Amino acid sequence: MNIAVLKPGMHTLLQDAGRYGYQHSGVPVSGAMDLFSHRVANIVAGNHGDAATLEITLQGPRLEFADDALLAICGADLSPAIGSEPVPEGKAVRVRAGSVLEFGTCRAGCRAYLAINGGFDVPQIMGSRSTYETARIGGVQGRALVKGDILRAGAQQPGLYPGLDREFSQARRLFAFPKWSVNQHIEKLGRAPQIVRIIPGRHWDAFAAEARSLLTGSAFRIAPDSNRMGFRLDGPAILLEQPLELLSEAVSFGTIQVPPGGTPIVLMADRQTTGGYPRIAEAASVDLHLLAQLKPGDSLRFELVSLAQAQALYLRREQEMVAIREAVEQHMSL
User: Fold this and answer.
1) At what angle are helices 35-44 and 307-332 packed, to 10 degrees?
2) What pLDDT digit, counting tens, does each position of 133-185 carry?
3) Is residue 43 domain-shared with residue 146, that is, in the same domain?
4) What is the DSSP letter of 143?
């Protein structure tokens, strides 16, 4: 099945969970910025494993479907519509051949994820379909979508939602969807300031008590020069107790580094493999999807939690993912 890109949007990339196992060779992980929304979209679209999705940032694309398709959109609310009819998020959507899906105004969040049953069919490079633009690998020729691209989807799984298929075959509309939807945490997007939980980093104690208090007691804003590699934070300077000489060490999604000027940088999906700046904190993985939905100018605050609390939150999230999948599978049998 083919999908024509009539308009590419601001920055639309193919992403999966990332390119793991190559950081020792200097290859970043990349992958979806908001893994929670990426995973939920795939579950609702009936995909197994980690199929590639479209990561759509702020202004979305205009896509024409050559064949009937089953899709799901999760994450930010970017006003998706077919014709003049809004397309719901967090639901399985059956789309008729010839339909044009277009995204409009960004109402909440920053990044939406479009999954299609069968996944997007692009070659795997080092075990991943994720786009890493700096090295021009993965996705569609290692770049964002451009007008005229033709996206291919894998084989559709027939009879996935029998009830939805019956409604779709009887209706005259260009698309159909069920009454149920999944909890994709959309209600948490757009809060000001967004709360992101953190745990102390490797060099937490190298910062003065005042600096640590500023990190957890102040509001920060996402700077305009932030991107998929890292978010620069505008706010009070976070300064070391005294100069610190460090060797470069491995970094993670959510590592908060502090360069000499005191402006924190939160490392994101396209982060480098190592870093030499002091690491004051690490964002709890359970909140990375909220962090990823912030756009330049949005505000956030950090809340300190213990490692045990962060681990418990992570396990609770994984239990939630299991519950979402089980609930969706129940609807598939109706």
Assistant:
1) 20
2) 999 999 999 999 999 999 999 988 888 999 898 888 887 889 999 998 887 76
3) yes
4) B
CB of 36 closer than 8 Å to CB of 109: no
* Alpha-carbon distances of 195 from 92, 279, 281, 286, 300, rounded to whole Å: 30, 20, 15, 12, 6
Contact, 31 vs 16, CB < 8 A? Answer: yes
User: Average model confidence (pLDDT) for the chain?
Assistant: 94
Query: Are 232 and 289 within one domain?
Result: yes
Residues 6+ apart with CB under 8 A from 33: 15, 55, 111, 228, 268, 269, 292
What residue numbers bound the domain in which 254 lies? 194-315
Which uninterrupted H or E stretch holds 73? strand 69-77
Residue 68, classed as helix, strand or coil, is: coil
Tens of pLDDT, residues 186-239 = 666 767 799 999 999 999 999 999 999 999 999 999 999 999 999 999 999 999
pLDDT for position 190: 65
Structure tokens at 140: 């569609």
Place of tokens 């999954």: 115
Q: Is residue 232 part of a domain?
A: yes
Query: Does some domain include residue 265?
Result: yes
C-alpha 280/C-alpha 296 separation (Å) is 22
